[in-house]
Design brief:
2 strands; globular; 6 helices; mainly alpha
Length: 130
């Protein structure tokens, strides 16, 4: 949303924060499940995420992917976006254990496979598949 639609840098008080909040609320109020994913640093997105979590009437789960910078860079190299930004930029963005400090995040470690993480998220959201 921030990079591709708004072409906005990740700055405190950026337009994208309110837009993400509005989009999530609209989808939730319309009966959709929402998975908000991204580099959502506590200092910039924490207040919005806390409010969104507080205001949502349904099941809400927060997940934190606890991935080291080294592993993040290794995974990034396999993505189509790998040429759009590199390790130096990612190192500037990276915040180790940047939890929201509300004690409710479910931490998923870097040793968890993609399949395991998806199964865990789906089960927690009550969306288990057979």
């Amino acid at each position: 949303m921030r990079r591709d639609i708004l072409r906005e840098r990740d700055t405190p008080g950026g337009v994208n924060i309110g837009l993400i909040d509005l989009m999530c609320r609209h989808a939730l109020d319309s009966g959709y499940h929402v998975l908000l994913e991204g580099i959502l640093t506590r200092s910039r997105y924490g207040e919005m995420l806390h409010a969104l979590r507080h205001d949502h009437r349904g099941t809400t789960a927060l997940f934190y992917m606890d991935i080291s910078l080294e592993e993040t860079l290794r995974r990034h190299a396999t993505r189509p976006q790998a040429t759009q930004f590199g390790g130096e930029q990612m190192g500037e963005w990276y915040r180790e254990r940047d939890l929201l400090a509300c004690g409710s995040e479910i931490v998923i470690g870097e040793d968890t496979s993609l399949e395991e993480a998806v199964r865990h998220i789906m089960a927690t959201a009550g969306l288990e598949t057979t």
